[in-house]
């Protein structure tokens, strides 16, 4: 299988950087080590390091597993939750 590296514009990479930083801070607030989180999430410590750096090439399911370990899985449901633009487009179609 030939995988391609995810390419993001710098302004969008900043989103991933912030997500990674938020995950790292959540881990530290809970006083969990990288070893504890990676073991509980079923990933290698190097993968957790990539997640905490905001690597967009890491599978979204692995981000979820890390959030689950810290009891933040409900935050995952907030992704694309408020689609105001999509609702406006839908409403225009109904006219």
TrEMBL record:
Cited InterPro entries: Cro/C1-type_HTH, Lambda_DNA-bd_dom_sf
GO molecular function: DNA binding
Ranges annotated as spanning the membrane: none
CDD domains named in the record: HTH_XRE (cd00093)
Keyword Ribosomal protein: no
Pfam families the record matches: HTH_31
Signal peptide: none
Ranges where the HTH cro/C1-type domain occurs: 23-54
SMART domains: HTH_XRE (SM00530)
Keyword annotations: DNA-binding
Name this polypeptide is given: DNA-binding XRE family transcriptional regulator
Organism: Maribacter polysiphoniae
